[in-house]
């Protein structure tokens, strides 16, 4: 907790949601304009420029970070989402602990995977994922055109049998099945 531009009780945290160095700043809303002006002015010499949510979302997706409401929500399991490493099944009791233990023993029916399009296209939230025969096997939860990789990529829940890296899946974009390859994240 410190002072920025004369404003007290500002918390600067070395956290972020882009997968690269970043900071989050916590303060009382009534000083937002003052703090915004002070920070943007102070950062001019370093080339600091504002960016929007689309930039943040692309950066987090390129790192394979899940977005609550898209890639994870109260209907998804940490085991389905590849987040089992943060779920300590043997450490005390918690909501749905028995369900997750059973799920770990029996396996999951779907998994969150990264994918890269093999042809031109931009995948988007809720686009169907299909197999070679056109059967629906999942859906895209997040997608973008990656400025770093110069391809369309995203995250999708697919039936477990299609979740192995290098598996071929198809993303339905404007009634066309675009081939994609399942890949490990992060993408970059």
Question: What's the average pLDDT?
Answer: 92
Low-confidence stretches: none
Residue share in β-strands: 25-35%
Quote the CATH topology of the largest domain: Elongation Factor Tu (Ef-tu), domain 3
Can you tell me the number of structural domains?
2
Q: In which range does the helix fraction lie?
A: 10-25%
Largest sheet: 6 strands, antiparallel, barrel
Q: Explain this structure to me?
A:
This protein is of the alpha+beta class and 188 residues long. The chain has 2 domains: 2-50, no CATH class; 64-183, Elongation Factor Tu (Ef-tu), domain 3, CATH 2.40.30.110. Helices cover 17% and strands 31% of the residues. It has 3 helices and 9 strands, in the order βββαααββββββ. The strands form 2 sheets. It has a 6-stranded antiparallel barrel. A 3-stranded antiparallel sheet has the order 1-2-3, with no helix packed on it. The longest helix has 12 residues, at 32-43. The mean pLDDT is 92.
Keyphrases for this structure?
about 190 residues, alpha+beta, Elongation Factor Tu (Ef-tu), domain 3, six-stranded antiparallel beta barrel, three-stranded antiparallel beta sheet, 3 helices
What's the gist of this structure?
With 188 residues, this protein is of the alpha+beta class. Helices cover 17% and strands 31% of the residues. The strands form 2 sheets. The protein has a 6-stranded antiparallel beta barrel with strand order 4-7-6-5-8-9. Strands 1-2-3 form a 3-stranded antiparallel beta sheet, with no helix packed on it.
């Amino acid at each position: 907790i410190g002072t920025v531009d004369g404003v007290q009780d500002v918390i600067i945290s070395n956290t972020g949601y882009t997968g690269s160095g970043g900071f989050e700043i916590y303060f009382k809303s009534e000083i937002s304009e003052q703090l915004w002006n002070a920070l943007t002015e102070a950062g001019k010499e370093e080339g600091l420029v504002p960016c929007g949510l689309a930039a943040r979302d692309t950066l987090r997706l390129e790192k394979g970070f899940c977005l609550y409401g898209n890639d994870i929500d109260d209907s998804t399991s940490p085991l389905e989402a590849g987040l089992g490493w943060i779920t300590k099944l043997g450490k005390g009791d918690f909501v749905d602990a028995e369900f997750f233990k059973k799920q770990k023993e029996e396996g999951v029916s779907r998994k969150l995977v990264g994918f890269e399009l093999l042809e031109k296209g931009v995948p988007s939230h809720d686009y169907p994922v299909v197999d070679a025969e056109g059967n629906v096997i999942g859906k895209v939860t997040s997608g973008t055109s990656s400025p770093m990789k110069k391809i369309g990529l995203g995250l999708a829940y697919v039936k477990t049998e299609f979740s192995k890296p290098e598996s071929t899946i198809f993303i339905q974009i404007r009634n066309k099945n675009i081939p994609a390859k399942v890949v490990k994240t992060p993408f970059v």
